[in-house]
Amino acid sequence: MGNFFNMDNGFFTVLGKLVDMVIISIIWLLLCIPIVTIGPATTSLYYAVVKVIRRERGYLFREFFRSFKTNFKSGLISGILLTLLFVVLIFDRRFASGLSGNQGFILMSIFNAMLFLLVCVTIYIFPLLSRFSMGIKQLFKTALFMAMKHLPTTILLVIITAVFVLGTYAILPLFLITPALCILLWSLLLERVFKKYMPEKSPDAESAGIDEWYLE
């Protein structure tokens, strides 16, 4: 019975991570309210979930807001660009849905494919930004490259996202944890992809005081 109340007990460890995910999800939601800040907020969410909740490094608030500050400009621009692209494609799709015959079918197929591709790129954009330093153009090109090169993983990521979105829509209170939980599941797939593009762990890193947590 004494082991149950030990704070290192597996139950309390899982409970602590769940509480962290609720807290970070609420912070993410609050920072997304202005809409234009969705980019840096999502970048920070991924960074904090992977580093603090998965790898147990650092402190939740400190790591989240450090990433938010570091990636604010790139995340802001990327988020605005993605939002504009989604708006344009959705309006184009609505226009195509009003057309009849083969022309309407062809345009709908094209716009549906483009929307799916944009969703795939969006899923990669902010996790990439949280991990790598690159310009906006290179960020979008890299996201597209990875999304297509690792298509089975990408499709699974889209399915996970759709399940969480629909689940939250059906049971609204789930929004208190689904953002971080969805990102956590993303990271299980994305981190395996990212490791293919990162150098091997340096044998001298630990002695030099460098924590290469992202290579674990």
Please give a structural write-up.
With 216 residues, the chain is mainly α. The protein contains eight helices and no strands. The chain has helices spanning 10-32, 38-54, 60-70, 72-97, 101-131, 136-149, 151-170, 178-195. α2 packs across α8 (178-195) and α5 crosses α6 (136-149). The two termini are 34 Å apart.
Keywords:
globular, 216 residues, single chain, mainly alpha, 74% helix
- Regions with pLDDT < 50 over 5+ consecutive residues? none
- Taken as a percent bin, the fraction of beta residues is under 5%
Number of strands: 0
Largest sheet: none
Mean pLDDT: 89
Q: What characteristic shape results from the CA principal axes? A: globular
The number of helical runs is: 8
Helix and strand content put the structural class at: mainly alpha
Compute the CA-based radius of gyration. Answer: 19 Å
Brief description of this entry?
The chain is mostly helical and 216 residues long. The chain has helices at residues 10-32, 38-54, 60-70, 72-97, 101-131, 136-149, 151-170, 178-195.
Give the SSE map:
Blueprint: H1 10-32, H2 38-54, H3 60-70, H4 72-97, H5 101-131, H6 136-149, H7 151-170, H8 178-195
